[in-house]
Amino acid sequence: MPGGAENSCAHVLCARQYTACFSGHRNIPANLAASLAADIRETVTDLASRGITRFCAGGAQGFDMLAALVVLETPGVSLTLILPCREQTSRWRPADVGFYDDVLGRASEVIYTADSYSAGCYHLRNRRLVEESSVLICYFTGKPGGTAYTVDYAMKKQLEIINLAGG
């Protein structure tokens, strides 16, 4: 399996223009999941028509995994998982870990920003997602947390931001 904190970022500058990333809340209301998946699919297809064919997700439950699944189901694009640490799923339910492992096994590339958990590994993952991308596709409702941090960082880095929450 590709990955590890030791991975080189030499390809980032040339790949950035062909790359988009995802960030969103972990809790997606069940009544919105199907329409949100359709919005993600439409956005991925539109970006692919513009030459963006590499999509990066952080592997968190909720929006990240929904987006990853849509990318895996979309022809002509690839999924890169940029994960905070190897034990990201240590407190997840077994069914969620099984789904995660399936997505992990189907990704084109897997990058860990740290081998083990540390206080800043999630922020490091979020920064890496942004730094490798030219577009951020998010589901951001204004709540504080990791998505807010990532959207703010993407704004500072002047990424195009597509908010599927309508904000």
Task: Explain what this protein looks like in three dimensions.
- The protein is globular.
- A 6-stranded parallel β-sheet has the order 4-3-2-1-5-6, with helices on both faces.
- It is of the alpha/beta class.
- It is 40% helix and 17% strand.
- The chain has helices at 12-15, 33-49, 63-72, 94-106, 121-131, 146-156, and strands at 19-24, 54-57, 78-83, 109-112, 135-139, 160-163.
- Helix 2 (33-49) crosses helix 3.
Gyration radius, rounded = 14 Å
Contiguous runs where pLDDT drops below 50 for at least 5 residues: 1-10
N to C succession of SSEs: HEHEHEHEHEHE
Number of strands: 6
The averaged pLDDT comes out at: 91
Proportion of beta-strand residues: 15-25%
Q: Classify the secondary structure makeup into a structural class.
A: alpha/beta
CA-based shape: globular
| Biggest β-sheet: strands ordered side by side in the sheet | 4-3-2-1-5-6
Distance between the termini: 37 Å
Short description:
The protein is an alpha/beta fold.
Fold blueprint:
Blueprint: H1 12-15, E1 19-24, H2 33-49, E2 54-57, H3 63-72, E3 78-83, H4 94-106, E4 109-112, H5 121-131, E5 135-139, H6 146-156, E6 160-163
Parallel strand pairs: 1-2, 1-5, 2-3, 3-4, 5-6
